Amino acid sequence: MRLIIINGPNLNLLGKREPEIYGSQTFEDYFKILQNRFPDIHLEYYQSNIEGELISKIQEKGFDFDGIILNAGAYTHTSIGIGDAIKAVTTPVIEVHISNTFSRESFRHQSYISPNAKGVIIGFGLQSYDLALQSFL
Predict the structure, then answer these.
(1) Residue 99, annotated ligand binder?
(2) Is the whole-model pTM more than 0.85?
(3) Which of 16, 28, 58, 127 is deepest in the core (most CB within 10 A)?
(4) 10 annotated to a ligand binding site
């Protein structure tokens, strides 16, 4: 099984950015834990702060991978292009958020990804990625 985790803007700052919301662990450290926990899964990780690069990665992996786990960060609430990219590919996508977006600012309640995603996991911290990964097993 081949899965990719794609993270959007500012998620490269996990461990430093607003630890009261996002925790103190870097994503790179957490990714190593996931790789060790699921050794039989070919697991890749990609992060970009640039919307077009995220779309390109979805298109690149979206026809031959078994799943995409996507945390598009703030682009979740603004990017019709990312939503359209998910709709265009055949690989199922699970939308993930570390925080409970519905307990935050009202603009975070809208997602352009959810209507095209296989499922949505919100608010379980970094464990949201683990839950998304398990949903593909």
Answers:
(1) yes
(2) yes
(3) 58
(4) no
